[in-house]
Amino acid sequence: LGWKFYDADDYHSPENKKKMAEGIPLNDEDRIPWLCALHDILRREDSCRQDAILACSALKKMYRRVLVSGASAIESNQPEQPGENAALKILFVHLDGPMDIIAGRLKKRRGHFMPSELLKSQFDTLEPPSAPENFITVSLEKSLPEIVLEIQRAIFQG
Q1: Which of 18, 30, 106, 120 has its CA 20 to 30 A from that of 47?
Q2: pTM for the full predicted model
Q3: Comparing C-alpha atoms, which of 9, 52, 5 is closest to residue 31?
Q4: Could you read off the pLDDT of 102-121 as tens digits, one per residue?
């Protein structure tokens, strides 16, 4: 696609990384500053008319609202109104699959601060996207080329 790519894990605070490395799941208080920083990155790219991909475990609806609208989404359940700080247009890709497939992939990662033991807490926290969110759900049981093609189709048809 030629788009900038950001891995949200690169933007966790040292405290968050330490907490996860110790097997302690993050809570909303840990995640909100991180999500606001990610929103700022996406806002900067949008202001430069640069498309970007952000790999991020935006597990809750509120977290996705923060990515779209920034810190104002925390105080309000309503998206921002059009204007200078209009909500960003984001297509969320929900990579859906059974815990055993995801656990197998996590175990293959080397040097990552999040242990695979935290996967269950992420499944417990997950609020799958739903209308009116802008999203697609893609099965992780498909091959990587099929997953990429499905995402590309959604981007260019949307």
Answers
A1: 30
A2: 0.84
A3: 9
A4: 888 777 766 665 666 778 88
